[in-house]
Amino acid sequence: MTTTVDNADSSTDVASTLGSVIDEVIRPQATVVDREGAFPRSGVDALAAAGLLGLASSTEVGGGGHGLRVVAEVVERLAAECGSTAMVVLMHYAATAVIEAHGPREVRAAIATGDHLATLAFSEYGSRSHFWSPTGTARTTDDGTIRLDARKSWVTSAGEANSYVWSSLPVAPDAGPMTLWLVPADSPGLTVSGDFDGLGLRGNGSRPMTAEGLPVPSTAMMSADGAGLDTALGAVLPWFLVLNAAFCLGLADSAVAEAGQHLTATTLTHTGAALRDAPVTRRDLARLMIRTDALRAFLGDTVTALETGRDDAMLRVLQVKALAGETVADVTDGAMQLCGGSAFRRELGLERRFRDARAARVMAPTTDALLDFVGRVATGLPLFDVANR
Ligand SMILES: Cc1cc2nc3c(=O)[nH]c(=O)nc-3n(C[C@H](O)[C@H](O)[C@H](O)COP(=O)(O)OP(=O)(O)OC[C@H]3O[C@@H](n4cnc5c(N)ncnc54)[C@H](O)[C@@H]3O)c2cc1C
Questions:
Q1: How many domains does the chain have?
Q2: Does any domain span residue 1?
Q3: Are strands 207-216 and 163-168 parallel, antiparallel or unpaired?
Q4: Which mutation among 89, 129, 356 tests ligand 1's pocket best, with the greatest number of atoms within 8 A of CB?
Q5: Domain identity same for 191 and 322
Q6: Atom of ligand 1 nearest to the CA of 364
Q7: In the beta sheet, which residues pair with residue 130?
Q8: Among 145, 187, 307, 339, which lies 20 to 30 A Cα-Cα from 379?
């Protein structure tokens, strides 16, 4: 398992371009996106126009050709400003990874130039967070067309994306556990079937979607019939898990910075002391900082393991989101406690980060599932119990 190794010059260019988009569009709209639960369309369009949605696409189709290190830095910085935008972009990059490997050239080229937003439609009402066991079907009809039927429970950017990487049962019953498809947004029979009114990431538009008799050509199949789980684990999972960890890191780091500024700038007029003058506040801030920096180091090591094809790369990938999801939940909770009532109100931006942070541990594979996977690797068991998948 390896990823492209990024060069330092091109990553500096990306950082500077991203900085401008954040300053001009993403940071100013973050509060409104959260308060109104609005999809961050202007931020996504600005990222597309700046060439940042094509970062993970290969240079052969006009993309940036970047590996996980640079792409993770982008997600981390976006998450520090607007969790909803970061999640939309994270899902787009995770979908891009599989489309790059198995999708049609015209879609790859459209992603590379920023004209196409993609996402993952895996989770279903039937199998819930167990994305490895789709219940939606793909059947061949009398006229030879393949028709998809499914009730997807959560699809980030639903109704906003141009295409959906879609999981189903295989067409041939014994072909394997899952088949992946690339479903265009304008497919007949595809509907967004509900709203998203979440605790956090309120603008990421993770709405339910339904496919009813949705026709797909056999060319829409990504990799072989029944081979979708291997593709999901090999091509999608490393990107999704590493980028999710970067998303958590961005949120945690910004919460620590916010807390540090608050402790420094806030004084008690009757004593003249700042909040930072109490040793206990410095100790608690230090603990949050160390947790966050430990996550940064672990994430860096995970990317290095992937870049160098280290034997423990897959293990690191499974571990990193479990670590990140729990770290960001604890760190944002601790930052709320440190900053007291000021954090409880919206004035600091901490409560938004606290709410956004709750998503990581329940996004599939959830922390529970990842801990089980890691335990299985540690004891020599297969990732999935085939009899009880
Ligand atoms: C903001 C957000 C965006 C999302 N975007 C997408 C998206 O773009 N595409 C997509 O496909 N999905 C997406 N999801 C869905 C996500 O990946 C999960 O499928 C979903 O959050 C699971 O919720 P649930 O209530 O169905 O969980 P359930 O499966 O009902 O699980 C409930 C709890 O039980 C635990 N649990 C379940 N089974 C076991 C077990 N066997 N052992 C131990 N514990 C277990 C889980 O860890 C979880 O904590 C998104 C979710 C969120 C929150």
A1: 3
A2: no
A3: unpaired
A4: 129
A5: no
A6: 17
A7: none
A8: 307
**d(Cα 48, Cα 54) in Å, to the nearest integer?**
7
Same domain for 236 and 192: no
Distance (Å, whole) CA 86 – CA 102: 24
Ligand 1 atom with the shortest distance to the CA of 167: 11
Helix (H, G, I), strand (E, B) or coil at 234: helix
Residue nearest to atom 26 of ligand 1 (CA): 128
**For position 389, what pLDDT does the model report?**
61
Give the range of the structural domain holding residue 188, as residue numbers without chain letter: 121-225
Residue (of 166, 283, 288) closest to 221 by Cα position: 166
Q: Are residues 361 and 241 in the same domain?
A: yes
28-80 pLDDT, tens digit per residue, is: 999 999 999 999 999 999 999 999 999 999 999 999 999 999 999 999 999 99
Strand order across the 207-216 sheet: 137-140, 146-155, 207-216, 190-192
Whether 169 and 47 share a structural domain: no
